[in-house]
## 1
Amino acid sequence: MIVAEKLTKIYPGKRAIDGVSFEVKKGEIVGFLGPNGAGKTTTMRILTCFQPATAGTASIAGFDVFEQADEVKRNIGYLPESPPLYMEMRVREYLDFIAHIKLVPRSERRKRLEDTLERCGLGDVQHRIMGKLSKGYRQRVGLAQAVLHNPPVLILDEPTSGLDPKQVVEVRRLVRGLAGEHTIILSTHILPEVSMTCERVIIINQGRIALSQPLRELDGGGKDQQNLILEVQTAQDAAAALRGVDGVRAVEGLPSPGQRRFRLQCELGTAVRARLAAFAVQQGWQLLELRAQETSLEETYLRVVSAEGGAH
Amino acid sequence: MNGITAVYGREMRSSFNSPIAYVVTTVFLLVVGLFFMTLLRNYLSFDSFYRERLVAMGQEVGPADVHQYLLRRFIATLGAITLFVLPFVTMGSFAEEHRAGTMELLMTSPVSQRSIVAAKFLASTTIFLFLLLLAFGLVSILFLHGNPHPPSVLVGFLGVFLQGESFLVIGMFISSLTRSQVVAGIGGLGAALLLWLAGLLGDPTSTIGAWLNELSLVAHFEDFTKGVLDTKHVVFYVCFIFFGLFLTLRSLESLRYR
C-alpha cells in the first residue's frame, strides 16, 4: 500500500533523511519510531506530497507521490504534528469544510460527517468553537479530519503528543479502532505507544532506517525463545540452581536488593514457567515474581539508536 | 477548480468571525466619511463664494463643476485611503494559515494551489467591493442633490477598484512569505506604498526615472480620477494583478522546498 524507495531529502546544509526504503502492506499499522529530529516528519511530508524528495521515489496505493500527487492526496488522510484547525470555526462546520476540500461526493457528505463525529466521539462538542476545546478534543478533531473521507491510507504524525495520560489512552483506542480498514503509519517517540497500537515497528535514526520488524519478533529478542523475569527470596545461589531447570538456556542477574532477580532466556511455551514455579517451591524459595517479559522494544530501540551514534 | 467555493466560503466566514473585518470597515468608513465631509464643505463654500462674486458682477452662472472641484479630489483621496486599509484585509490570508498549520492541510488536500490563491483573492476582493459600496453610498448623496456626470464617477471608482486590487495582490504575496500577520500587514503596506510612489525613487528626467514612474501605481491612477478611461492604464493594472497572483502562486509552490 505504501512503498518508499531510497527516499532522500536534503535541506540546505542538512541531510534530513538518507536512502529510506520501506514497505507497508494493506491493513497494517506501522509505528514509525525515532528520536526527535530523526526524519520522521520529513518522511511523512514526502509521503503526503507536502514536500518532494530530493531523490528516491514513493508511492501510495500505487500512485507516485510526485507524478500523481492529486490521486495520492485523495487516498490519504494526514494528521500533521499539530492538528490543522481553524480555531474560530465550530467542529461541525470545520468537518463540513473538510468534506468539501477532500471531495467527498455531495450525497455522502452528511453520512460521512455523522459517522466521523460518532466514531471520534465528537457528537457532544460538534457545535463548539474549536479554539475553546481542550487539547484532547482538538486532537480528536484532527483525527476526524484525517479519516472523514475514508481514505485507505492514514498518516499520523505524533497523534498523542502533548496529551494527558487519559487523552493518550483515548486517542490510542481510536487509532486501534481504525485498524483493519485503513493502512496506518503513525510516528511517535513514545515506545509503549508502538507496542500498544502497532503491528510492526520501523525505527529511524539520523535519517536512516535502523530496523524494520514485526513487533512479535522483537519479543524475547528472537523467534524461538522468550525472556522470563524471576524474583525469589532465598539464601542459596539461585542462579546456578536455575540453570539446571529443563528449558532454561541462560540466566542473567538483574540489579536488585540482594541480587535475587533474574532474567532467564527460555524456550518458548508456558511449560517452562510451570516448571520454574514447581522448582522454586521444591527448593523452599519464596517466589516473589515470575512473568514473561512482554516486549524488549525499549532495549532494541536503545541498542539500535545508540549503536548508530546516539539519540539526540 | 475543485474546492474553490469551499475555500472561498471558509475565508468569508472567518473574515466576519474575526474582529479585523469590522475594525477595518469602521476605520475605513470613518476616514472616508471625514474626508468626504471636508471636501463637500470646501466645495460648497468655494461654490457660494464664486457664485456670489459672479452674480454681483452681473453674470448668470450655474454651480461649480462638481466633478472637478469635489469628486476628483474625493476619488484621489479614496485611492490613498485604500492603500492604508487594504493591507490589513489581506495580511491574514496566508500568514494565518502558516501560523495555524492549516497550510499543510490545504496542501495535502486535493485542492490545487491555483484554487487556493484564487479563492483567497476573491474573498479579499469581496470585502474590498463591500468597502467600495459603502464609499459609493456617500457619493450617491451627490446624485440626489446635484448632477454629477455618472460615467466619470464610474470610471473613477473603476480606477479605485483596479488600484485597490493591486494593493490586495501585493498584500497577499507578502502574506504568503511570513507566518506573522503583523509582519504581513506592515510589510504589505510598505511594499504597496513603495510601488505606489515608485516614481519618486528616480530623477523623472532620466530614463530610469521615467521607467520607475511608469511602474508607479499612482501614475496610472490619475487619469481615472479625471474621469478619463484609458485602456493603457487598465491593461497596466490587470497585468500587475496577474503578475502578483502569479508570484503568490510561486511562493506557495516554493513552500514545498523550504
Note: Residues 77 and 142 of chain A are 10 Å apart (CA to CA).
## 2
Amino acid sequence: MIFSSPDFVFGFLPFSLVLFFIAKRLGGAWAIGAIVLLSSIFYSAWDVRFLPLLLGSVLFNYTIAQALDRVSGERRRAVIYGAAVVINLAAICYFKYSNFALSNFAVLAGRSLTPIEVILPLGISFFTFQNIVYINGVWHRKYPAGRLLDYASCIVFFPHLIAGPIVLYQDLIHQFQAMRAGRFPKPEYEVGGFIFVVGLFKKLVLADSLAPVADAVFSNATNAPLLFKEAWFGALAYTFQIYFDFSGYSDMAIGLGLLFGVRLPLNFFSPYKAANIIDFWHTWHMTLSRFLREYVYIPLGGNRRGRTRRYVNLMLTMLLGGLWHGAGWTFVAWGALHGIYLCINHGWRALEARWPRLKPLGIVGWPLTFVAVVMAWVFFRAPNMSVAYSILGAMTTGAMTGPGTGAPLREELLLMSAAICFLLPNTIQWAGYDPYQAKQPLQWYQFRPGAAFGFATGVMLLASVAYMTRISPFIYFQF
Amino acid sequence: MNRSKLLFWLFLVLGASTASAVPFSYVYRFDPISYFRDDDRYLVRQDYQFHAIAGQIRTTTFDGLIVGSSLSGNLNPRIFEDGFHLREVRNASAFGAGLSDRIAVAQLAIRKQPSLRTIFFEIKPMNIEGACRYRSSRFPTYLFDKNPLNDVLYFVSADMIFISKVKRAGIGDFFTSNPDQAARWLEAHAAHVAGAPARMNSLIAKVRNEGPSHRPIDIDKKPMSDEARRQLDCGAEALFQLVAGNPTIRFVFFEPPEHISLVWRRYAGAAGSDSPAVKLAFLRRMRALPNFEYHDFGDRLADMSAKCGAFVDETHFLPAVGDEMQRDIVAGTARETEQSYPTRFRAMLETLDLPELCEVEH
C-alpha cells in the first residue's frame, strides 16, 4: 500500500483518521497507541514478515537508551552505545550491502559467488538511522530515554516511515509528548489535505508521466547509439521525475502529518532554482543533508581542521551519502561527483572572498549548477556504469541526427516540468507551511481555506485519481 | 467549523465532481473496452491488449478461453471450438503477458463466466521459474482485481479517456469489428514476417559460431539451482491453486515450440537451463489433478522448431505452425506426463542438431 494508491487514499487514510479521532476522545495515550497500531498495519500491508524487524529495532534501541540512562560510568556507556551502533549498522549492512560486498569480493578474488537471497525491508535506511540518532542523543544526554510508546510513535509514524523525511527524535518527541498529555494541536485538515493532494498530483500526474521517457532512454542506451537530443531529454526527464516523485512523496508525508496534528520537517524547497551546489544541498532532501552534516561531516571534523581536511570530510560525507542511497558503484559515483562539486563550490567561495571582482561571474551559477546536477543524476539512474558512460558520452559528443533509439521524448512534458520547477512557487510556499509555526503574512497566492482553494484541490485530486490506475512505487522506496 | 473551512470542503467536493463529470460521461458514452456493454467494435491496439481482454471477459459470453502471451496471439479459436466441442472460444492473449498476468486473466474469466468449461493455458518451463518476479508494466491490475473502487476508476482513468477519444475519432488501427483480431499481431508485422528466413539464418549462423559448450543435459542428474527451486515453488504453487481451486474447468496447458537455435542454446549451447528439471517438478506437482493436462511442443524439432521459415524470430511462429499445434492438442498426440517426459526429452536430445541454413526466397 503506497500513498498514491486508491486503497490508501480512499481506504486506509479515512479509516485511520476516524480511528485517530475516536482515540483522541479517549485520551492522549490512546491516540499515541492508535498511531503505533495504524503505522504497524500500514507497514504490514507491504510485507508483514518485516514488522518484527521494525518493532524489534524499536524495542532494541529503547532498551539500549534505558541502559544508557541507568549506567553511570562514561566508558561503560560508550561501550553500550558503540555496540548498539554496530548492531544497527550490521542489520542494514546485511540487508542492503551484503550482496554488493560479495560481488566486489568476487571480482577482487577472481571467483564466482552466488548472491545471498535478501529482500530489502522497506524503509530500513530511514528507521535505522533514526534509531541511531535517538540513542546518540541519549548517550550525549541531550534527552532521556523517555517512554517506549512515545519513542515508538516517533520512529514508526507512518507518514515518514517508508521514505522520510528523515525525522530526528527531537523533531517529534515534544509533539507526541504534548499529545500524550492531552494537548492536541488544532487540526489542520484543510492545509494538510491541500499539501497531500498537491503531492499526489506531483507523483501521479507529473512524475509517472515523465518516467516512460527516462525509462526508454536509460534502457535503450546500450542497444543503439543515443542521439545528443535523446540523451539530454532522458537525463532531463529523470531530473524532473525524481524531483516530482520524491518531493511529491515528502509533500504527502507533510500533509498526512498535519491531518494527525504532527508537523514534519521540510524536505524540499525548490532545489532546481539553486544558484550553486551548496544551496542545492540546502534545498534538496534537506533532512538527509541535515543528518549527514550533523552525524557524519561534523563528527569527522567538519571545517575545523583546516581547508584540506574540510575537503576530505566533504568527499567522505558525500561518498557515504551516495552509498546510503544504494549498494552500487553508480551511487558511489553520484556521491563522489557531488562531493567534488561541493569542494569546487567551497573553493570558489574562498576565491570570491579573496578577489571580489570574481563575484559577477556568479551569474552563471544557476545554469551551471543545474547542468551539473543533471549530469550527476545520470549515474544515480543508470543501472550500471557503462550505461551511465554511454549516456554521458551522448550528452557531450552524441550525434545530432540519425536513427537513434526511437525513445519517446515528450518535449511538451519537459517544458511544463521545467516551468513548474523554475517559475512557480513550491508546495511549501504555496501552502504557507512553516514547520516552526512562525507567523508570516500571507502572500496573494498562498493557501487559505475557502472556495477557490477548495475547488482547485478537488480538481487536482480528480486529475490524480485519473492516473491512479498505473500504480508505480516511489523511487525512494528502494533506498 | 467556520464558514471558510466549510466552503473549502464543499468546493473540494464540487471541484472533484465537476472535473469527474466530463470524463465520466465521455467514458460512459464510448465504453472503449466494452467494460459494461457489448459492442461490435473491439480494441486491438497492442499497448492496450490487457485492457481489451478485461472488457471482453466482462461483456461477452464464452465457454473456452485461450490465455497466453504473443506466442498464442495467432491461435485460431475455431480449431479449439470444433476439437473440444465448445460453443465459443475467445483468445485472451496479450503481448508480454507473464505468468502472473495470465493467471490474473484466467481468474477474472473464472469469476465472470459461469459457463466457462475449458482454459487453454500457454506455459513455458522458464515462465514457471520466473513467475514471482515478472509482472508486465502494461498490466492494468485495477481491471482484473476485485476492488469495488475499480469501477469508479474505470470511468475517470486517463487511459480510458484517451481510448474513448480515439474511439470517437474512429482511428482505424485501434478498433476492429472482428473479436478474433483482438489478440492477433501478425498483420501489424508484415515487414517483420517478410524478413523472417534471413533473420533465422543469421541466428543459426551465430549459434553455429558459438558451438556447443557442454553436452546435453541429463535431467535425472542435473540438480536444479536454489534460485530456480524457489521460483518454481512459487510459480507452480500459483498454478496448482488455480487448477485445484476450479475442478469443474478443464485446464489444457500447452508449451509452444521455439526456434531450433533457442532449443540448441538452452540444451547444448552456452545458455544452459534449469528448464527440464523445472518442467519435471511441475508435472510432478500437478499429477494428482484430474482437470490438468500438458501438451508439449518443446521437443518438436523436425516439423516445427527446425522447419525452414516457420518462425519470424526466436520464439514467434507463423499461424500455420500454430494451427498444427492446435490440431495436435485436439488429437492429444503431444500430451506429456511426468512418466513420459524424461524419455521424450532424451529422444529429443539425441536428434538435437542445428539444421542447414534456410533458403531465402528473393
Note: Chain A has 19 helices and no strands.
## 3
Amino acid sequence: MGQLYDLKVLIENKIKADGLDAMEVKGKIGLRSGRMLAFIKADTPDDPAAVAKLKQAVKDVLNISA
Amino acid sequence: MKWNLIRTKVLAALLACLVVGVGGTLALMHYSFARNSQALAVESVSGAQKLFTILESREISKMTAVSEMLIVNPQIRDAFAARDRDLLMKTTVPLYAKLKSEGITNWAFYTPESDATFFLRLHSLARFGDITMKRFMIDEVLRTHAMVTGNELAKGGFGVRIFRPFYDAQGKEIGYLELGEELGQFIHAMKSQTGEDYGLLLSKKFMDRQAWADSNAVWKRRDNWDDNPDFVVADKTTATDSIMRFQGELAAVPAEGTVLEHVRDGNSVFVRGIFPIHDAAGNTVGAMFVVRDISAVYVAMRHTQNILVLLIIVSLTVGIILVLTLLNRLVFRRLRHIITVATRVVGGDYETEIRVGSDDEVGQFEQLFEQFRRVFVDLLAHLPEMQEKG
C-alpha cells in the first residue's frame, strides 16, 4: 500500500471517529488536492507531488498533520 | 471583515451613501441657514434704515409744525422780541414740559447776532448768554435765513433738529428758534416697532469732547467717551455691549448698509448689520447697529435638519438591510448551495442535485451547473468501462 492510500484511510478514520459528513469532507479535500479520493486504491502508485498536495489538504480541512 | 466579498463591498458602498447623504444634508442645511440668515440680516438693515428715515422725516415734520405754531404765538413772539427772558421762560416752560413728553427734548432761542448767542435753553434753563459751538446748521441758517433741518451734534446731544429764523409782529428777524429730538430715542421707538435691537454709534472725528461731556451732563448720563477708541455709544436698546463690536471705519460703511455676521450667544443666534448716519452737512458721523434674533429660524432649521438626517439614516439603514437580504436570498445562498453540491460530488455524493430556484441570472448558472454535474456523474459512472476499453 502506498502513501496516498494510507492518507485516504487516515481521512476515513478521522471522519468516522468525529462523525463528520463524509461526502462534504472528502469533497473539500478532493477539491483542495485536485484528486478524488474515490479513485485512490490500495495499489494506486504514489506520486510525491500528489502526496504533498493531499497532506496539505488534510491539514487544511481536518487540521491534522499526516 | 473580508474585503474580497461582494457583500462587504456592497455594504461599504451603501455606508458610503449614508455618510454622503447625511453629510450632504448637513452641508445643504448649513448653506440654506447661511443664505436665510443673510437674507434676514439684509432685510433687517434695509428695514431699519427705512424706518429710521421715516421716523426722522416724521419728527422733522412734527417739529416744523410745532415751530409754525410757536412763531405765530403772540406771547412768545413778543417776549422774545422784547428780550424779556423771564416772560419768555414763564410762557414756554409749561409748553416745553408737554413737548418734551412728545419727544422734543431740545428747545432753544438764539439772538440774531452773527455769533448766534443762546438767549434761552428750555432744556437747560440756567445756561444762557453763551456763544454756541461751531455748527453747520447755524452757519446755514445765518447764511440763508431759511429753515435748516437735519442731524447734528450740539451741547444738547446728537439729535435731529430744525433751525429757523424767528420774526416779530412786523416780520423782522429777531432771532432763531431751534427744536431737536435726541436720535437715541429713535432706536427705542424702532425696537418697539420691530422687536430688533439697535445701537447708535457716533464717530469721535466729528465730535467735540467737551460738547459730549456737556450733553451727558444735561441728560444726567455717564460720560462714556473713553469706552471706545474711535466712537461713542450714543444709545442702545440692549444692556449688553456685544452688539457694538466693530473694527472697521464708520465712514467706510456703505450708504445702503452692510451685514456683518451672525453670532451665537448661548442658545440664541443673532445677525448683525450696520448702516451709516449722516449729519446735516452730509458727513457720515456715525452708524446704527441692527441686531436681529434669528433663534427661531435657527431652531426650525436644526429641527428640519435633524428630521432629514434621521430620515436619511432610517431609509438608508432599511435600504441596506433590504439590499443585503435580497442579495443573500437571490445570490449568496444559491451560490453557497452550488458550492456545497459541487463539493459533495467530488466527495462521492452523486445523488444531490442543484435546485434551480428561478430563471434569473443565478438560475441560469444553477441550471448550467446542474447539467454539468450530470455529465460529470455520468462520466464517473462510465470511467471504469472507458479504462477497460482504453
Note: The longest helix of chain A spans residues 3-18.
## 4
Amino acid sequence: MVYLTRKAEFSASHYYHNPAFTPEENASLFGKCNNPNGHGHNYTLEVTVKGAVDPKSGFVVDLKQLKDIMNREVLDALDHRFLNKEVPEFFTQIPTTENIAIAIWQRLEPKLKAARLHRVRVYETPDLFVDFYGEA
Amino acid sequence: MKAHLTRRYMLSASHRLHSDEMSAEENRATYGKCNNPYGHGHNYMIEVTVSGPVDQQTGMVCNLVDLDSFVREQILDRYDHQNLNLLREFTKAVPTTENLCISIYQIVKRGFDKAHLEKVRIEETMLNSFEYAGEESLVGGR
C-alpha cells in the first residue's frame, strides 16, 4: 500500500451561524466568525489516496486524473465562493473547517476509482487544520 | 462524523541536555552541543490534535476558544520563555523534546475534557519533530 497526497488551494468566505440559536448565543459561541457579512481564508487542501502501485504504470493513481477530479468536484465549487450562500452543503450546515473537510470527502469519494481515498486535510490557516478519514 | 482537529502553537524556551547518571565525558558524547552548561533555546512549534464527533449544532469537534484558552493557561504560561531544566517535571528527567512532548500530552490528557486527545507533536527545529500519542511515562536520565 502506498499513499499519495496532492495539494490544492482555494480561497473562500464564510460565517458561522445557527438559526436555532438566539443572536446572543450565536455571538457568544462563534465570536468574530458570526459576522453575517462573512470573512475569508486561503484554504489549503491535501487529498491523500492509497492503493497498490500498478506494475505497468508505476502509479498509485494517475495524478492528472486526480487533479481533474479535485478541480471539477471541489475547487470549481468552492474557490472564490461565499460558502454559506453558494455551496449547497452549507445552506443547512455551518461551514466550519470540520464540515468543509467532510463535504470535500463526500464529493471526492464516489468519484475515485483506482485508488481509495484515505484522508482529506483542510488547513484554514497554517495554525489550524482538520483531518477527516471517512469515519462515521 | 468523527474528525480530527489540529491546532499549532509556538513557545520559546531554553534547555540543557544533561544526565546526572552519566560522566561528563559520556554527557558530551551523548548530547554534543546540547550539553553546553549554559543551555541554549528553541522556538518550539506545538501541535495538539484532538478528535470527536462533529457537533451537529455547532459544526465543531470542540470550540477553539476552549482549546486555545486551555493551552494558553496550562501549556504556554507554564513553558514559554522558561528554562525547562528548572521546571518540576525536569528535575529528574532530561528536558529532551521527547520528554517535553510527553509532559504536554499528559497535561492536556488530564485537564482538557472537551474532546479526545489524539496526539501532541512538537517541532524543535524545522528539521526535527517528535510525536507522542500516549501509553508511556517519562523516560531517560535524571
Note: Chain A has five helices and five strands.
